[in-house]
Each structure stands twice: as structure tokens, then as C-alpha cells.
Amino acid sequence: MVASRYRLDESIGQGGMGRVWRAVDEMLDRRVAVKEMRIDGLDPEDARTRRERTLREARATARIDHPGVVRVYDVVDQGERLWIVMELVDGRSLEQILVEDGPLPVDEVARIGLSLAGALRQVHAGGVLHRDIKPGNVLIERVGQRRVMLTDFGIAAIQDAKALTMVGMLVGSPDYMAPERISGRPQGPPSDLWSLGATLCAALGGSSPFSRDTTLATLHAVLYEEPHLPPDAGRLGPLLAGLLAKEPQDRPDVDTVTGALAPAEPPPKHPEAPQPGTRTLDIGLRRPAPAPAPARPRPANRRRTALIAAGGALAVGLAVALALTLPDGDPQAGGSTPTTSRPPTVEGTSRPPTESLPAGARREAGYAWVPPKGWERVVKTASEVHYTSPDGTQELVAQSALAKDDLLATWQKSERAAHQGQDYKKLRLTRTTFRGRPAVVWEYLFTLKGARWHAELLGFDRGSRSFQVGTWYRPEVEERARATYERVKETFTITSAPQSSPAGD
């Protein structure tokens, strides 16, 4: 029981910002969702930051009264834990729908986009920026009107409140993050609309048009590369191209977006003059839906110069410290959206290679490992999990995805892009072996918020899946950190098939 009122039934989700429970409000006899934020075990400054962020989420959401935004009912402060009591939505996230059912048709995507645009109109009118619009934060009811709802305002920015950022991390999903947010330039409603465009592209094509094999490559694509729009975008193509313009002023506003997403008007009726012995027939022409005005042309060199300057200001550690996100993983809420693809296979079989599990192994999506006890677990996606040491001097990461191009070539490309950052120093990037089979190792140094970090990543393919296990740590704890990393690597085990991890630690 929480506050002698809310009875927790079962955990229904977990992500980087907390855990969500299905619960019952015993006082009003209604089902609710309760988001738990634990702040025990943190130093006073971290605890203050997390507490303020949680309260800010509640305030940001409670200020919005719109059917397309999940409602907040209550906030309970229990010292070491904070609880946000919210509307319980009987539905699935757009991300889950894409994983389970595949990409959606144009008309359904337009319906989803129209609902989200309406919600954003209300959100922005209240002086709030969501800042993390992505398929994992879009809920769609299973029955009835199948409402489309925007959720998780955990990193929303209230424009009249003091800004908060997560220490040592780039908060949000790079695949759906507007260029100006990555480069540290001012943000506004166009930043959310850019994320909306990337989300609608994912709904049509299965993944963000900027998803790449590594986080660094994804950030580079958002800043410098043009999007590859879904081939089945149809009438939404011009709108998506406009929403994903690099410069905020070149994107359509919410009114234009709403007009472009609205269903075509019913055809006007033009009755024919009745003829003797015949019936009157109604005929008409269907008018196409309005489209946004094309973005005004701008000199390519001006945009390139601005983006290069922005990219140079982006510390490589900030990007790399998020780990190498593989977009074809098996995500849940909070992670990258996957492409629809064939099941993993190995030569002569229909399953990936498997190994026996070590004692105490924790199963994740396609792999298992034995993380250190007492470390904080953060689920980025269903296939990417991080563990942070109690003193914050080391982080471990593991993940799986569908294998694509040669891993060394992919990492070399990302490494070249890393030179746009600051204080990056490569120690080695080469082929190696792991348990007698081919692998790639990338070791480097980087600086983040004035602190020096040492990173080492190990990647390898097994069958048609790719796996990574890595760490980054402060140099002063190198001996202890490397010993921990080696122990964890020895426990890394490939399981028979990708599967979601149960809610836990």
C-alpha cells in the first residue's frame, strides 16, 4: 500500500526514469498506474536532482488537460521514494505495436499523428516542451475509441522553471532527438515537432530514419544527413520531409501539421438531372488532403557551417557514454524502435547459438550475464541494460541486436565521426577474439563535464545477431574497474532467443 490508499498489484514496466505499477485506488475504487521513483542510496545532490525531476514531471503533466495526454491524479512523497499516480491506459505503446505487428498503413499513422499534434498544441500552449517524443512514449488504447495518448513527461521542460539535466548523460533517445537539442542550441515547439516527424516515420517504416548501428553514428546522422523517408509514406511524404528539416524555422507549425494529417474531406455531391425512367446518381471527385508548403530553400553552405560548429561543441564523451545503441534490438518503452526483420538464425538452424547459463545469471533480451550486486540497474530498451556502481565511478552496459554490416567497419566509421568531439583519444580499435571466436574491441578516453573517463567496448556476432558488452570508468579506479569488467565478461552468455527481462532490481 502507498499512502494507505494505493494498492500495488503488479509491475508493468521499467525504464531509466523509474518503474510503473498497475494499482488500485482503494478510496475511489478505480484502477490506476503508479510510477515509482526510488531516490535512496544516492548522494544528497543526486537525490535532490531526482526528486525535483520527478516533481517537475508531475507538475508538467498535471498542467495539461487534454484527452491525448495521460492524466496525473496524485503525487506521494515518502522520503526515499516518490510516487506519481496516473491514469491507467489499457493499451500498448506504439513501440510495442511496431515490434508485435509491424509498420502501420498511412491512414492509421495519419490518425495517430493528428491526435499527437492536438496534444502538442495543448502542451505547448501551457508553456511545456515534452522533449522525448518517441514510439515508446505513445500509448494507443486497445478498444473503444482507441485513443492515442502522449505519456512520460519525465524530461519535459517547463519554460518558466529552472532547467535540469541529468548529470553525465544525454537524456532522451538520439534517434528521435532534434538537431538543435543534440548540438545544445535553443529549443522550442519545433523541436517536439521534429521528434513527432521521426516517430511517424518509424510508424510507417519500422524505425527512425536516423537509426544507425551506434549512438555516435546516429547523432552524426541527425546533425548532418538527410532522412531516408519510408517508401510507403504516400501523402505524408511532404509533411515528414518538412518536419525533419534541420533548421527549426524551416519546419511547418502545428496548424500546418494538423491540416496535412487531417483525413480528406468527403467528396461533394453533384446530383445529375433526373432523366425519365432513371434514378438520380450522386457523383463527385475526392479532393486530396492539404499538404504543408515546401520548406523555403536555404544555402547548403550556411546550414553545413552551422551544423559543423554545433557538432564541434558536442563532447564525444557525451555521445559515447550512452553506449553504442543498436537500433535493430528488441526494445520496450524507452528505447529505439526496431525494424521488422526475420527471426535470428544460425547456419543450419532456426535459433541463435546458445551457451549454458552461469549461476546467478540474469536473463535479458537474447543474452544473460551476472551483474555486480548492489549496482543500480537501468533498462534503456529491452535489449540494452546498464549497471552503475554505487559510487558512480563505473558503468557496465550490455545489449543485443540483429547483425548487419561488418562490425569493425561500422565502428571505424563511428570513430572517424568521434573526432568532431573534444578530448577524445583512441587507444585501440581492432579485431580480437572472444572465447576463441572473432570479435572487435574499441578502447578510448574521453572527457565529460571536466572528468576523464576510460571506455572499453567488446562486440561480436553470433549467427545473425550482434552482441556488445562494455564499460567506462574513472581512471583512478582502473584496477578495480577492469577486474569487475573481466568478471562480468566471463559470465556473458547467449540465450536461445531474445526475450524481455522481468521487472526486477
From TrEMBL:
Ranges where the Protein kinase domain occurs: 6-273
Region named Disordered: 249-301, 329-365
Top-level taxon of the source organism: Bacteria
Residue sites binding ATP per the record: 35
Lineage: Bacteria, Bacillati, Actinomycetota, Actinomycetes, Kitasatosporales
Alphabetically ordered keywords of this record: ATP-binding, Kinase, Membrane, Nucleotide-binding, Serine/threonine-protein kinase, Transferase, Transmembrane, Transmembrane helix
Annotated InterPro entries: Kinase-like_dom_sf (IPR011009), Prot_kinase_dom (IPR000719), Protein_kinase_ATP_BS (IPR017441), Ser/Thr_kinase_AS (IPR008271)
Residues passing through the membrane, by range: 306-326
PANTHER family documented for this protein: MITOGEN-ACTIVATED PROTEIN KINASE KINASE KINASE 20-RELATED (PTHR43289), SERINE_THREONINE-PROTEIN KINASE NEKL-3 (PTHR43289:SF6)
EC number: 2.7.11.1
Protein name per the record: non-specific serine/threonine protein kinase
CDD domains referenced in this protein's UniProt entry, alphabetically: STKc_PknB_like
GO molecular function, one term: protein serine/threonine kinase activity
Biased composition annotated in UniProt, kind: Low complexity: 336-345
Pfam families listed in its UniProt record: Pkinase
SMART domains membership: S_TKc
Top enzyme category: transferase
